[in-house]
Amino acid sequence: MTIQKQESRCMLNWSSIKRFTKHKAACILGLVAGFLLLCQGSLLAGSASAASVEYRVKAAFLYNFTKFIEWPAHGGEKGRPFTIGILGEDPFGSEMEALAGKAVGDESLKVQRFPAWNDRAQKCDILFISGSEEKNLPEILRRLDGSPVLTVGDAATYARRGVIINFFMEDNKVRFEINLKQAKRAGLKISSRLLKLAVILEDSAG
């Protein structure tokens, strides 16, 4: 199958995901898993098109994480959006724009980008920490310590160093690992249905 045909099928399945969000969570998880298997089948190392598909898959994951993770209440901040932040170089391109304005419970999703650390990043609900920030990771995690922020990344060792969810490639497919210790520290409750799809580990960070 060519990358062009594959991406066309991915777009159709992305539309299906959007229509299906009104159904129960278990069905959503099954559809997402099927979507990911379809999109990932022909990822080619070094291909610009493959990179686009990879980050389309990761963007889909970021949104669907919201259905299987429980955050503490926003403390009565009425009208506060649910915010996904991207810290450092943005590898998603336009993929994140498709998420802006989508519903997360009773809230509307907002996407923010931070080329470098900004204290507003602590207000995000999900913070994707780009690999470009790897050297700054200890300081970033120190600033976020105890905050109800789901940290996500895709650089080697991120989860073991304290990032809560870290994407990795296996057999040309996007998978993810979860650091449960850090999730609990942030006050986040992760559904067992999501945990079944993940590699579970404990970090080596203090």
Characterise the protein shown here:
The protein is of the alpha/beta class. 34% of the residues lie in helices and 21% in strands. It is built from six helices and ten strands, in the order αααβββββαβββαβαβ. It has helices spanning 3-20, 25-40, 48-65, 137-144, 180-185, 192-195, and strands spanning 69-70, 82-87, 103-104, 107-114, 126-129, 150-153, 165-170, 173-179, 189-190, 199-201. The protein has an eight-stranded mixed beta sheet with strand order 3-4-2-5-6-7-8-10. Helix 1 (3-20) packs antiparallel against helix 2.
Spell out the key features of this protein:
206 residues; alpha/beta; eight-stranded mixed beta sheet; two-stranded antiparallel sheet; disordered N terminus
A few lines on this structure:
The chain is α/β, with parallel strands linked by helices and 206 residues long. The chain has helices spanning 3-20, 25-40, 48-65, 137-144, 180-185, 192-195, and strands at 69-70, 82-87, 103-104, 107-114, 126-129, 150-153, 165-170, 173-179, 189-190, 199-201. Helix 1 (3-20) packs parallel to helix 3 and helix 2 (25-40) runs antiparallel to helix 3 (48-65).
- Category by helix and strand content: alpha/beta
Average of per-residue pLDDT values:
82
User: Could you list the spans in which at least 5 consecutive residues all have pLDDT below 50?
Assistant: 3-23, 41-46
Major sheet characteristics:
8 strands, mixed
What is the overall number of helices? 6
Give helix and strand order, one letter per element, not per position. Answer: HHHEEEEEHEEEHEHE
Span between termini: 46 Å
Radius of gyration: 16 Å
